[in-house]
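Reader question, answered in our methods column.
A reader sent in the components of a multi-part assembly and asked whether the whole thing could be modeled at once rather than chain by chain. We filled in our standard form and ran it. Here is what they sent:
COMPLEX SIZE: two components
ENTRIES:
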Amino acid sequence: MAKLPPYATTGQRIWHYTFLVICGLIFFFLIAPIAVVIPLSFNAENFFTFTPEMLRLDPEGYSLKHYRDFFSNPDWQNALWNSIKIAPVATILSVSLGTLAAIGLSQPHVPARRAIMAILISPMIVPLIISAAGMYFFYSKINLAGTYWGVVLAHAALGIPFVIITVTATLVGFDRSLTRAAANMGADPVTTFFRVQMPLILPGVISGALFAFITSFDEVVVVIFVGSAKQQTLPWQMFTGLREQISPTILAVATILVAVSIVLLTIVELLRRRSERLRGMSPG
Amino acid sequence: MADAASNDGFVVFDRVQKSYDGETLVVKDLNLSVAKGEFLTMLGPSGSGKTTCLMMLAGFETATHGDIRLGGKPINNIPPHKRGIGMVFQNYALFPHMTIAENLSFPLEVRKIGKSDREAKVKRALDMVEMGDFGGRRPAQLSGGQQQRVALARALVFEPELVLMDEPLGALDKQLREKMQFEITHLAHQLGITTVYVTHDQTEALTMSDNVAVFDDGRIQQLAPPDQLYERPENSFVAQFIGENNTLEGVVTEITGDTCIVKLDDGEIIDATPINVSKVGDRTTVSIRPERVEYNKERLQEGVHTLKAEVLEFIYMGDIFRTRLRVAGNDDFIIKTRNAPDVERLTPGQQIEIGWLPTDCRALDA
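And here is the structure of the entire assembly that came back:
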């Protein structure tokens, strides 16, 4: 916490503490809904509320039964498996296409690059339900609706904007004379890309990949439109679960997803710092 | 000289033009021939087209018209990575994610040279620039001067026959720059490589080069060895751009063989050598180097015209004296005198008479 300078007036002191309270409230507003889910998922009863036993911190009030349910119920297992099959493939597609697009659009000689950029980013701006409906009609025409690849492509389209934005941000600081130097030393464009450009924009690529992965892993609207029962993912299963049975297993799944997200974010941040250190951008 | 591009040079620009927008020419009808082993400097103010020429030679820009030949072969249609030209970039362009040794090894790896060979060449190149102990460091851990040496070693490590340098010393402090000027010329001559060097620093151009091409407005204004360029500039741009220069404006009143008489705008008469004035009545800018002006009457040649001058300022610079005079209405007439025991130190307000050898005073275009 920042120390107040000795010359601060009473008004400044009052504002300083008010400001801290406001920040705390905002933080609480953001975190509370997620934090509440975690203890509830250890509920021993099949309810979405804190039982008196739980409030008394009685061990009897807590159990792992919802987690057992998640790992034993074939519906949930199937959904988990579908998510695991879809998200990484969609991520790989998003990262490859998004990175190439970002590099292409960073070349000053590309005509109409602002317009192209706007189109590529539009899936992020257009309301999801509209994208989803559009994709459904389009994919139906070309027999992609209800297929595994349909869902993968749809999720890739949603992930590409994130990759483009993060990679473009890293490219802003990229020194073009490095690729020229590589070419001058005899490296063809492909070698130059993999040996010089890629390692240097890797932090942006990794962040973009994380966003693309989370987008696919958490996505429910598009998959309901474009997918069929065979592509039922975790979020879809949770959504159906909420509507039909209100089982606290959903809370267990939510907790697992939160944990996975935190782990992923941490790993990515560590990777990013490591690669920034490697390219000598920041000290030690 | 500029238009005498022969076809047997190692690097040849043959009537090269370059335009970025299809309207204005950045490079206008460039003819230039660089011999094998020559150290050529392209010198000029920013926007004069010199860097564009270097980029065309490296392959990062394409010529709009004309041919560029390397070793007799046209290279217009050869991509940069197949030209085999070494280059030192203005900001060094060292790969920040690789160590110094990896940086040097890179051009050898893409040439598929074996590991032991590679290591030997990298070591030799690093030793050559006295950076042998730094192979394991990263560029960010080196000082500007050290990065500069590494960049030089990297451009030389794959033994190119031609090396391009784009203002490589611009970011260094004065002392280091002078040291590197010497080292680069020394290395280039020792290895016998052809060098094309771009700079806007005239001292660098004069001290390093075999030949200097002075660029302005997309054309080579003069191509000559440093001493000729300094002592015999062919037009007023070159005279102004290279070294310190005094100018006086006037009209040619008489031309006899290789001397002429110029009547200055305030009516005084001086002797000069006609360079690009052709007839009596031409307006001319007369150029005299500050160190060629003489005010000791005993040393002045018999019969030459002298000018009255008033001393405005005397600056003691150690090895030389720098004196500012008012001559024929010009308040910025500078003379430089060597600090020697027999030289008179002028005082402001003093009235003196100055003169020079007609050969040192060149009547150029107005």
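What stands out: The helical segments of chain B are 50-58, 100-110, 115-128, 144-156, 174-191, 202-208, 226-231, 236-241. Confidence is low (pLDDT under 50) at residues 1-6 of chain B.
Send us your own complexes using the same form.
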